[in-house]
Amino acid sequence: MGAGASDLAAMEPSGGKATRAGLGDLPELCAAEVLLHLDAPDICRLARLNHAFRGAAAADFVWETKLPENYGHLLRFVDGAEEGEMGKKDIFARLAKPVPFDGGKREFWLEKSRGGICMALSSKALVITGIDDRRYWVNMPTTESRFHSIAYLQQIWWFEVVGEVDFCFPAGTYSLYFRLHLGKSSTRFGRRICSSEQIHGWEKKPVRFQFSTSDGQHAVSQCYLDEPGSWILYHVGDFVASSSEQPMKLKFSLAQIDCTHTKGGLCVDSAVIYPKGFEPERVIRAQK
């Protein structure tokens, strides 16, 4: 559908002359019925078409269908936001922006096309073995993380990263990932470079991923970390949130605890949760 659709006009007699009717003459209620079947980006594009769609695109009942069922609960995380004082379109727009919580170590946002909730936990929200000892780990500033900081592993014998989430996810199926990078990246003369000098130990044993939920869901998988130079989402597993009103508790981890050798050269950015099927970066699926 586009502006060219207005050519599908009817010709009607009026005072001996033909009048041309187009999409601009469509009642707003009819336009709104069309918008109910579209996702948010398409609604915004059609709002630029004519006044009928522009008016319909502001209707609360259109945007309420695009919001998750528990949007009122989610809005409580937004400072200064009052549900009764905001239109549904404004609520959608605010939740589509990152909403930080837990002192800025975590954030969630609404995925615009699907309307599902995404969440990210920074490395500082994770429990990392030896993180306070600079012989093993270094917190590094970077523009390659949404949290502007990553944990870089120089060398360690026992490697384990653990995270927990307690959150009311809108009902649906979600995928859990760790966002990892082998090698230390930097910028030189405007170009991104990656140093692999400290990468070692990951080829000897696979990393083990696992998660469990408060309602009995769980998964265990493993894979080798062997692709330096790129940020990769390592898939931990999928879980189902059956109720938008009940908090879902998750505990998850990645570990490589064979102490016969050291390992190093790994960047840990975050753990992320996306609606299943939404994969904004390259994904590697571990083997069960």
Automatic annotation (TrEMBL):
**Domain F-box as annotated: residue spans:** 20-66
InterPro entries per the UniProt record, alphabetical: F-box-like_dom_sf, F-box_dom, PP2-like
**Highest taxon of the lineage:** Eukaryota
Q: Which organism is it from?
A: Urochloa decumbens
Instruction: Kindly provide the name given to this protein in its UniProt entry.
Output: F-box domain-containing protein
